[in-house]
Amino acid sequence: MPLALRRLSLVDQVADALRHELDRAQWSTQLPGEHQLAATLQVSRSTVRQALQLLHREGRLAVKRGSRWRPVRPALVRRTAGGPKVPGTAAGGAKVVAMISSLPSAEQAWSSILIRDELRAQLQRAGLELQTHVLAQRSPRSGGAALRRLLAHTSAAAWVLASCSEAVQRHFERVALPALVLGSAHPGIGLPAFRIDLGAALRHALGTLHRHGHRQIALLLPRSPFAGTREVAASLAEAAPWLRAHGIGVAVREHESATSGVGSAIGSLLASQVRPTAVIVMLPGDALSALGHLHARGVRVPETLSLVCLFDDPYLARLTPALARYACDPAVFVRRLARPLIRLVHSGVRPSSVAVVPEFIRGGTLHLRDAPDPH
Question: What domains lie within the chain, and their CATH numbers?
C-alpha cells in the first residue's frame, strides 16, 4: 500500500510554528500583534488570525476585546459551578492529551508531523484536545528536571511520549501517570508502546540484500538517547547466527546526527579494506545525506552500492532513483494508536503494546549483484 499523505494547510503550518514558540515560552504575557506575526512568518494577516483562533479553540491562547492574544498556562483546569476541579481539561471544556517530543516541529521528520497532525484530527473528532510540548533530551538520562517542571504546570488526562529518553519514560512509569509511548520503549520500561517494528524491517532488509547477492553490508546508526536505535542494534545481534551461517558480514558505523557525521561514516566504509556493496540507513534524513556523500565521492547508486532506509518520509519517493525503504501509512498507524488512547482517557484502561510491521517499497536503489543464493 503506498504511503497516504495528508497535506498540512498553511493555517496548520502557522499554528505549528506558534505552538513551537508557546512551548518555548517565547511570549510570557502577550503575543506580538497580527501584523507583526504576519510579517515575521511571511503570510497574510488572515492566515495568522485563523491560526490564532485554532490555538484559542485548543485552549492555548486567550484574548479580551481590544487586547492582544495572550498565552494560557497549560495547567488550566475547569471548575464546575461550586464543584471540584476537573483535571486534564482545557479552557473550552475538552479533555487534554499532552504529547512530549524531544524536537520542535521545525526539526521533526515530515512523517512525524503527518502522524501528529492525523492524531490531533482523530482526537478532536472524539472531543479531545492534543497539546504538544518540546522537552530537550540530549542524553539517555537527560530531561528529568525540565520534565518535573512541565508536570508541575500541566494537567492532562493522558500523555503521549514521542522520541523520549529513558529517563523520561522511566519517570512516567514510576509516577504511574496514564501514558503510552509513541515509538519504542527502552529496555525494562513497562509502558505500552505503539511503534513501527524496526527490528522486522532490518531482518527483512538483510534477507532481501542476501537474496540479491550482497555479502558485505554496512549499517549506519545514529548516536541517540532514544530506544529505536537500541531496537535495531538488538535485532542485528539476534540475527548474528543467521548472518554467520550465510557468510554475511555487517559493518556497523555509529554517527552523529549532522550530515557531517554521516559523511564521516560513509568515508570510513569506503576506506575500509572490505568495502560494502550495500548500506542500510536507519533515518530518512541520514539516507538523504548518505546519497549526497556517495555522489560526491563518485559512488553510483545502485550500480556500485545499494542503499536501503528503515524508515520512510514522503520526499524519499521523489528522489531519482526512489529510495528502497520501509513505509507505514500514517492514517492506519494513528487509528491503531487513537482508539486505545481514547479508551485510556475515558476509562483508564491500559492498552497493550502494538508493533506495526512496515511495508517494503523496493524503489530503485537495490541492485541484483548475482544469481539468488539457493539457501
Answer: 1-72 (1.10.10.10), 198-327 (3.40.50.2300)
Q: Give the type of residue at 187.
A: P
Q: What is the dihedral of CA 286, 287, 288, 294, to 10 degrees?
A: 110
For the entire predicted model, the pTM comes to: 0.75
Q: How far apart are CA 326 and CA 344, in angstroms?
A: 30
Q: Give yes or no for a contact between 354 and 194, defined as CB atoms under 8 angstroms apart.
A: yes
Residues 45 and 38 sit within 8 Å (Cβ to Cβ):
yes
- Rounded to whole angstroms, the Cα distance separating 11 from 52 reads 9
DSSP state of 315: G
Neighbours of 349 (CB within 10 A): 10
How many Cα atoms within 13 Å fall on the side-chain side of residue 264? 11
pLDDT at 375: 45
Instruction: Give per-residue pLDDT as tens, 64-73.
Output: 877 889 888 6
How far does Cα 158 stand from its chain's mean position?
19
Question: Which residue in the block uniquely carries the three cell numbers 576506506?
Answer: 271
Q: What is the mean pLDDT of residues 219-228?
A: 90
Residues 6+ apart with CB under 8 A from 36: none
- Assess whether pLDDT exceeds 70 at residue 185: yes
Write the single-letter amino acid at 86. V
Task: Identify the band that residue 236 occupies on the pLDDT scale cut at 50, 70 and 90.
Answer: very high
pLDDT-derived band at 89, boundaries 50, 70, 90? low
Burial of 318 (0-12, 13-18, 19+ CB in 10 A): exposed
Q: Order across the sheet with 306-309: list the strands.
A: 249-255, 216-222, 278-281, 306-309, 324-327, 359-361
Cα distance between residue 203 and residue 222, in whole Å: 18
Buried b (16+ CB within 10 A) or exposed e, 207-245: ebbbebbbbbbbbbbbebbbbbbbbbbbbbeebeeebee
Distance CA 156, CA 32 (A): 28
Specify the pLDDT at position 73: 63
The residue count of the chain comes to 375
β-pairing verdict for 193-196 and 354-356: parallel
Residue 369 or residue 77, greater confidence:
369
